[in-house]
Specification:
Largest sheet: 5 strands, mixed
CATH architecture of the largest domain: Sandwich
Helix content: under 10%
Mean pLDDT: 75
Radius of gyration: 45 Å
Number of helices: 3
Number of domains: 5
Number of strands: 33
CATH topology of the largest domain: Jelly Rolls
Strand content: 25-35%
Structural class: mainly beta
Amino acid sequence: MRNKLNTTDAAMTKNMAIGIKAIEFLVVVALACITLATLVIWTLHYQSAYASMRKGNTMPLPAMQVAIGPDQYEPNDVVTEAKQILSASPVLSLTFYTSNSGSPNDPDWYKFFVGSNSALMVSVQSFNNPLIARIYLSDGVTPVGTYVDTVGSTATSTAIVTNTTSNTQAYYVLISNLTNTNAYYTLIYNTTPIAMPTATSTPLGVGPDAYEPNDTIAEAAIATGPRSTPSFIAVGSRIDNLNFYPYDSRTSDAADWFEFYGRSGSIYQITTLNVQPGVETVMSVYYPVANTANYTVTNPPGLSLVSAIGGSSNPNNRYQIGVRGSQVMFQVPNGQDGMYWIEITNTDPSPRIAGQTYSLQVQEILQAGPTATITPFPPTLTPYPGAPDAFEPNYDFDHAGLIAPNTKYSNLNFVPWHPTSETDVNNDFFKLPVKQGVYYTCQTLDLSPGTDTNIIIYNQDRAGIGGNDDISPAERAKGNFASRFSWLSAYTGWAYILVGEVDPPLADEAGGRTYSLECDIGLPATATPLVNLTPVQAVTYMPPTPLPPEPTMTPYPTPRTAQNLPVRPITNQPTAPAAPPTATPRSVSVNVQVFNDLNRNGLLDPGEGIADVSVHLTDEQTGTPLAQGTTDADGRVNLSVIDPGPVRVSVPLFGYSLLVTGTAETVRVAILTIPVLPDSIP
């Protein structure tokens, strides 16, 4: 019996153990189901609340009664740990985890990049915790934008900032929890481009120009007012939109002062151009001064005017008839390099209104060199009537007077320089800067009664190009004995102009023979003799004997004998002229390669190209410019033209030219040494 009971007890104990385990399993399953159901219900409720919030409702999100730990962006408690938000808005399940003893409130820093002219808006929402969202500049110290701080138990905080810079800007957002309670929060953000207002510019001439204040040398010599540099103009440049509008609270603009650097021996031409109504400039150019701070008023004592050359004056106003501008041409004496000063005043008292502007230009028309000097001649009185003009002595090539294109020079005459007797005569030589491929027209104007000019043009080797006595038979028949000659320059350099009298007056008669000279860029409106580019023999000039006139360009001194002229009878019915043959269009393509042939293989290899080299195409028969371009970074340039005949490709920088008779040509200009490029391309 006892054994049976023992067996029964053991079986019961075993069955009870199995039952207990089964009950424990069912309890665990039930708890898991309850927890899962709770999570599902909370998630559905949260999503419903968030959807309501996105629609503009303010229903708070429910508290989540689960353990809270660090979120995925931790650590980000300081600005140097700020994390860039890469998730799409909204960012859920962010936490304030305050159990970290080193960060009791767990501040969270985030980084956003905002494009130019865009707005960033950041909002944070928590379940029951007051919090603050603020945006900072990249230094993490200076707050920017607009803030709406939260107050109360339910937290919604918003910050907005606008990036009005021209670059993408980094902004840092700090999310702060006002309690020490662990909590979840949601971050909502967006960046939106904004429409920027169009800036309206001040009309030109209304308001001080960019170089004010420069009413005195003392102001112009330093960076002052809104100007970050001295009132300086670089040689070879032009400044536009200058005016005489008073600076700040001043009642008038007394003067505009500018400085530029002059090199010993160089010749400079300073011009005010594009002078608009309401402005009439007077220009003065001064030598460098020792201490600019001492000069506080316009034209102070101690300033020295430079000596003008080329027929100009200093000070100068109205250097040409009909213009309001000024021009001074002078040469820097040897050993007097320095900062030269330009003073420009306005003689027009009109009220200052829009459009009253002018431009200033400084050009170095003759660069410094060992021969760029002016030989001084002491002025002496002449015993004969009349005084030499402003260009004298200019009686030969070596003393040729320098002139500028598109400028008229008046009151010239044929009075000799230091005549030794009344039989001495005078010719005038001038020197003009010319550029390859450009047409020039030189002519005499405003001839006084009895004056009959002859003009001859020479190249820079002093070889004759051509000349003209009278413009045309029609003009000669009217009593106009002026001369005019046009030609196409085949090089860049100097051209010499010789002007003389057909019947040279004696020294005691030359005072009444006056004329004007003007050399313009381009062809005249009426027909004029054009140059024959066939080289002619240079004419040797031996002063004081005047250059003998060319037989084909001067009138015969005695009447010519009668000539037998062929006579051809004509009918009453004019014969229609035959139509000239039509030139067949011909496309010419030239591929030019300019390179340093470092390996001397005659080919353009990578890294050997020479950039920014000027290449020209001209018509071989007429010399007409057809195309021009510059080489790219690889030393290549392609030029295509339509021309019926052969064309010539030239590279002036290296003195290279080639005649192209076909329709396509590849031209390789190989340089065996690395060249030093000039400051400007021809």
